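Quick entry, no commentary yet.
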Amino acid sequence: MNDPNGLVYYEGVYHLYYQYNPQGTRWGNMSWGHATSTDLTHWTEQPLAIPGDAESDIFSGSIVVDKDNTSGFGTAENPPLVAMYTAAYKTGEQAQALAYSTDAGQTWTKYEGNPVIDRDQNDFRDPHVFWYDGGTPESSYWVVVTVEADDHKVLLHKSTDLKNWTELSEFGPANATGGVWECPDLFPLAVDGDPSNIKWVMVVNLNPGAVGGGSGGQYFVGDFDGTTFTSESTVGSDTLPEGTTLAGFDDGTYNGWTVDNEPGNGKNGPFGSAPATGPIDGQQTVTGFSGTGLINGFNDGDWPVGSMESPAFTVDQDHLNFLVGGGNHPHVDGTQLANDPPAGSELLFEGFEFPDQQGLADNGWAVTGDLVGGTNPSTSGGEFFLGQKRINTFDGGPKGDDNLGTLTSPEFTIDKSHLSMLVGGGFRPEGDAQTLEVQLVVDGEVVQTTAGTNDGALNWKSWDVSAYQGKAARIVVVDDATGGWGHLTVDHIVLADAPAQVRSNETSVNLVVDGEIVRTATGSDSETLDWKSWDVADLAGRTAHLQVVDNNRAGWGHILADQFMLAHEPAQSRLVDYDWLDWGRDYYAGVTFDNAPDDKRIMIAWMNNWQYGEAIPTGTWRGAMALPRELSLETVDGAPKLVQKVVDQTAALERGDEAFTLGATDIADGETALPAAAEGSVYKLDAVFSAGDADSFGLSVRNSADGSQRTPITYDVASGQLSVDRTRSGDVGFDADFPSVETAPVALDDGELHLELYVDHASVETFAQGGRATITDQVFPDPSSTGVSLLSSGGTARLESLTVTPLTPSMFTDPAAVASLTPAGAAQTVETGAAITGLGVTAANAAGEPVAGADVAYTIEGPARFADGGTTAAATTGADGSAPLPAATAGPGTGAVSITAVSGGVSRLLPVVTVVAPATRVDVDVTITGVKRGGSVVLTATATNEGSTPVRLSIPTAFGELKVASLAAGRTKTVSVDTHLSRVPSGSFRVTATAPDGTRETFRVAYRGTGK
């Protein structure tokens, strides 16, 4: 789920519709889901409300109660609910359409006259409809606000019947324009509760370009006269510190900069031969630069790569200020701009550069599932591959991202300390029901794994394999993933004595001193440049130069830069001056109920961010809403600002009799852990602090016992900034954009900081100074990370009061619902005819508790069968949630076996089983048993079959041939031959054992001679 849609209160019920994919946990198949509540805290999921169809997806919108039946969709006795949504047509056009319900929002009928507003645009969306009361019937009508997203405009239309619309006006661009504008809202609020002082609030969400990075929501305060919204809070021009300009690019030249463009591009990209004067062909509008020229790495689009370097200069002021925009791809120390493998590396599997018409199976790879018969290796997919061919499981079968299967390499010997490969494509976070990874299998066990990063660009991944040197190993590519980024791309697997150096994908501005990058910055996936400032006081007197790098071919694979200045004061980001719904990373698409009881203005927002929203490690569900908030306008520093508080109904969840309280106490420099009574996973925390003589102070929540996981909320006295630091909050490795520190400007009230925190299993919502500033962040700690501690730095702070109140969970309360399956066992190699053992799954609910009595369906694909000879079998989880794999036998045949477990809609691939032909093992004992009448010696051979299949034996000797026609597994036979000799000289002879498939093994048997 993502954007909230259609917030409406009707007949005592709150209705929340939302963007929903009924077929998966990633964006796609967009429809409207539906949930209802009577208290805004306990929600019941309803059937799918408005599904997408072959003609269009159903994007965001709103719902009104047409109480006077102006639309004619209902009756006076039974007025309709009318939804306006964006019909996102499969042709690319977006227009506004209607659907209506006459059964309290349970079922919906699309209006046959759709669309009702069509501007022949591809970015015209997100209607929010409300009734405007102009004081008379003639001046009252329906108003809808929509956006033209790429142009940063809010459009206003009016109607008397919800079907026929007339354009009123437009608003924007204004303030933050670093991403597309989406999900607008417009509503009145009384300032300081005074009904005679009404202001209108225009909400505009944008992605990316928000103050916290990525998705977020801004707002404007002003007036609306029924036709035009006029903002009173739009920020004007920059106020910059004085300084010395190093480069402004306004004279039409690069003025001494060295430019290294990639050869072979039509417009000499990425940087061209001279500064740009604005957007380049195909680029969105570029704004925020100074003067007439700028560095723009969009020549030839995002594809070309290159770099620029400035002339050297001396650092003689404390700050280096400049404007930067474009892609958000930071420089990472230790990376390379090239794509070279390690020196002296040994290439495995020919780098997949097999002769044409040859596939993996022709070169010893075992292929299963949808990947059988597909195109592997492929000549398409991904960037930064080497040569022409690579594994691409998207092309490897008929279903693209929905292909399922495995690719198992031939054995190779690990003879160097590191194994590296180029990997691209998707990944699935730990705990996800799907598996998508490259595995290294040694001795039948998976010892290393890696995957892509939801990116088409291949990059080097390396494993330290020194512990396995001298051993045989296999590479297994496991694609048990469907939906977006449900594939892997793999190329150029090498063994070397050092790891491969990761290729940088940066779009960056760097400061270089003595050949080392000492400062770096990047864009924010935005064509709007903003100020960045480096503190360079420690570099005073040093010689430096600037480096601008574009080493990225993918989306937002370009950099913008301008107006480099040395100054004594830092330049401030323009974003800080704008008004934001929330200063965190996870509060987007916020819209309000227009008809909530008591005229309250209640907002609900999606608690996620498009930078990483499809990668969060939540398994079988993805996306949640932040707690509903009541909005008000209060005068702050002479201007009306939004103030937010969690709705009153949430108090019903509080377990006040279990609350932990702590009175006034000093907080010594360092960290002070609170007792176990303060710990928990779901609670409300209220605290009041004063600074004392500390430089910073605050608290930390969701702490682990060993200190490795923690989420500090701290206040910096000098800067007046409140921050939430989730860089060590738990699982932060699923996306490079996730670990972050969010800050908000907060003024102390009479020297005190008031905090109200809502802490949950996967989120922290922070309200400061009664809701004047909020910071909402997702976090993914271990369930055991429940500690709380007080923090002070640089001195002693003062805690005035603290209360931790447990909250009763209102979601995920069905303990019998399977939310995840965890595979048991390890990859194994099994001989034909042998049992497959040690595999299975453990089922858990959303709280991570085992689910007993759940049905699990197992399916085998490949050379193995269950006890009844079939490929499917059922099991039931025990008290510990485990369901071992039912009895199964390897064979007939050899190769890789895929085993899938499914329970409650959750599927999981078990570790790979490789079936091999059985070994032939025969023990032959030759003895001289005696002398027959007539003086001849008899040779006797006793043969025992220690293998797993029958064999035939032939033992030719100089004195005759011993034969065993068939020797069953585990059986022993004795045969003899009369030598017709009275003495046997010492010597040896051959034994040849033949397996059923014709395989032969020959060995020699020595013997000592005998006299008479």
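second:
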Amino acid sequence: MALTERVPIQKVMDEMPFWVVPKDQNKTASYLSQSCCYFAKGSSTNGLATMHSHTRTDTDAMSPHTSDARGDTKRISSHRGKNERDKNEPPQTSVDRIWTRFSKREFSQVVNVIPSDSDPGALNICPSNKLLHDDYARAASKCRRKVEKIVNECKRVNMRYRDPTWDLDWDLKLEKGDCLNGLCEEKYDLSAVSLSSSEDKVPKAVKRVHEIFEQPTFMERIQGGDITQGNLSDCWLMTGLVALANIPAAVKRTCVSYNTTVGVYGFVFYRDGEWMYSIIDDKLYLKSPCWDSPSTQRDLLEQVGQDGTEKLYRKTYQTGSKSLFFARCRDQNETWVPLIEKAYAKAHGDYSSLAGGWTGEGLEDLTGGVTTELATSDILDTDLFWHREMSKVNQDFLFGASTGYLENGKGERDGIVEAHAYIVLEARSLKGGQRLVKLRNPWGDARRGIWEGPWSDGSKEWTREVQDELGHKFGADSSFWISYDDLMSKFSLLDRTRLFQDPDWWCCQRWVSVDVPWKASFQERFRIKVTQSSPLVVVVSQLDRRYFRGLHGQYSFRLHFRLHSQDSPDADSFIARSHGNYLMNRSVSVDIPDISPGTYLVHLKVTGERDHSAKSIEEVIRQECLERVEKDKLIQVGHAYNLAHGKASLHLNKVAKLRQDKSSEKASEARRRERRRQWAKRRARRYATKKQKKKNLEKGRRRGLEPEPAVPNGQRSGVGEVGLEGRSHFIQTGGAIEADSNAKSSGSTVPNEGLEMSSNSDKVSVEDLHSSQHIALQKLSLQCASEKEGKPPSVVDGVAGRSPSQLRRKWAWSRRQEASSSQIRPRQSVGESHGARSLYRAGDGVQFLHDAVEDSSDSPVDDWEALYSSDDMTHEPRDDDIGKPSGAAAHPRQRGQRWRRLSESSSDDLCGSDEEESSDPWNAVCTVGIRVYSKDRDLVLLTVEDGILLEEVRTKRSV
């Protein structure tokens, strides 16, 4: 057919087939014009068919997507059934299906990254209440013993200590970078180009302390102004060291044992509620390469042509603190800053793990304290805050001050640098009543980031008397004084770290694994029993992801909790709630100065966020196993992951035991209900069989003397008539049958096959009577139940005791039974029937023969002993096992129906895959710990799961 004239676009759109989605007419018109679809005048139908085929071909050839008005791509689905289902189903059903696909019913978590047989085991968290000093003493004592063994070994073989698990020297020479870079990152490129470059982007050499420093000292001169940051963005750690340097004893407390001659140092840090030790050697990274390696500095010195060029090179570029690549002291011979940074980096696995952080978190790891973010505008009584907390700086508290973080500030406010942390060194009340606070800028520069307002260096407020009273000298270092009122107005955030220096502080802790739904809510997780009045500090924290960076997954969490009294557990009657750490999300806390004895409930809420751009743990492990030649880094990070998540292993075992008990109880209850239902059904069937048998016998006796008519082919129609007439009469009068519910029958059960007979004269099939029989059985079952309870049966819609919804379900069951009967059993005559029961005429009437396998007791328990055992977890037994002969024909039918249901559901999923393409379901699990600090030695901390105390669940801890 010749295409001679272009048809208007609107007409084509009006006749457009169902699989085209014209959301935007302009774009659809453009699409149709590009597909070159022309129609002959007067033949729109054929032309439409031609356009249909051409457009379909173009769509398949070009792209399976089209664009909507917003520019987003939309897949054009040609599956009509799926589209019709979406149109016909209610909106709530669609929403429910989306949530079903989006969220898993049972959340799961990766607990062991490395196989458990190679993992050293989880930390031994003691669940009982213990003194804080004892916990530190245990870790320090273990560290000292290990250092002592290393020293004895090295002296025995006359060798300096070389750390075999964290050797900086060989790691750099082999260009592996495991001590520098994390698992899935390469912050420091150890390529030949980078190592030969003159820029300080990567370390170039590794030397021991005695090779770098001329007269090395260790912790002989501890000052806050002596700390200098290196080529790593760990200013948060350096700021914490500046604050800790105000208490020299606290700095020395971190290093419990060392030997400078052998070159071994042992430090302790606080990690996830427990003190841990880190033992290192004395090797440090340098900025400049060794003399034997090619470098620009060597070439310049060689051009001078002086004697002793090598010594000059080492003196200039590889001697003193100035030659170190990472953190250092201003004193050219002091070594405590680079060594404590190295020990902290080893504890985390590498140096790059220290990049980025918060000062409060660093102080917690160095002191074992508890840090809380305080907004200065939220403090109710500033005078009370001064007397209780600020005036006790360096005694019970450490403070950091900052501003501009929440305002995205990048400038200065009267000399104060925004988005930068300052350390509170001292708080003093002058004789004249002025309250002053001394702060330090960790940069160490006396000309940058210094307060320029009242009480700044050189301001008019300073007098000789005040200067002598405070002992302040202008321009001495990066410290300055500011009034307390200006501090509260110029700084928006205070990081308060509580120090537990008193020897009578006790701590009790628990670790649990919490499923985090997409919409979180408060739930009771812990109970605290206080026996005496005491100050109380409650800390809820999650695992420090810095220790296993690279295996943290896609989810991040925030914690919230409320403290309730057991006497008033209402949601609105809490005693206190956690302070929101908006910048630090590792932990939240509540500090109560004094709490009365009693039982308190901790309601916890964990909210989660998902980063789809991040890799899941499974993807990281798969990639690392395929790409990495060396497996040491994966093993190191994997062990740290197992160590952290092993804290909640005991809780996971108890929860698994609790859920197993609940599942067993639920299954037992389901089995009991099913046994009762099946027993009532069999009892009703026995009543119906006895009644029918009695009627058949009476009718047989009445017709016993009548001669039988001739039946062709040797068939006996009289027996079929008797059965059919009796059954028809039974169905019509079934509603009036009465039976004694207390009488126990010892007769035999008559199966359905005994009634499924056909007569050539009446041409009545067994399947036509199946539904009526089932309705009669329902009536009898109801009647039996009513007699047992002493209540008359109710009548709804003409059927006793059944609601319309129940009748619909039962009628659907009858239709399925009718369909299955027609598929499995062919219609047989009485003479050809192979049922369990047959009729024969003898002397005084009709007698029944039956199999003994169908005998049934009245007891609902005895009948099910053979089907259920104590360890059987079946919820829904098969009806074919009760009251029916087992046959091979029934099982293929059930399997076929099940296969059809599965295939229908899978086809629906395939049809909906085009429109419901989404990522993996929401599966967030957070490991949460709680620590309760008090001066009550008898305090008890319990864990709660679904209102049940897990301490009452007995289970063995898995190895």
